[in-house]
Write a structure and sequence with these properties.
mainly beta, 4-stranded antiparallel beta sheet, 7-stranded mixed beta sheet
């Protein structure tokens, strides 16, 4: 079993910044892709950003939703099994519950895990 523990959400004014963290713990061989998704009330859960394992300490290829490109930066520390999301120039429309996702590698198979979510609220 894997646990994903998120932190760093909160209330911020428009134009401000927040940094989210998500640490994975448990027994596994490794973690492939890690990412952040968000869900606003009455909306579906949408991709924010993903980062591949990359085979290095700091991860590999990144992918962003168009709405956050140039404002958000995803990064990871493979030694700590942790993914981060630096969010700058926040807008009220960024308000949502942000979820961490990890695709975890076991011997011969992969499993998908989600964090419990952390609320981000951006006031105008």
């Amino acid at each position: 079993q894997v646990q994903l523990v998120e932190s760093g959400g909160g209330l911020v004014q428009a134009g401000g910044s927040l940094r989210l963290s998500c640490a994975a713990s448990g027994t596994f061989l490794g973690i492939n892709s890690m990412g952040w998704y968000r869900q606003a009330p009455e909306n579906q859960r949408d991709l924010v950003a993903t980062i591949a394992s990359g085979g290095t300490t700091s991860g590999g290829t990144t992918n962003y939703a168009d709405s956050v490109k140039g404002r958000f930066t995803i990064s990871r520390d493979n030694a700590k099994n942790t993914v981060y999301l630096q969010m700058n120039s926040l807008k009220p429309e960024d308000t949502a519950v942000y979820y961490c996702r990890a695709i975890v590698k076991y011997s011969g198979y992969l499993l998908n895990y989600w964090g419990q979510g952390t609320q981000v609220t951006v006031s105008s």
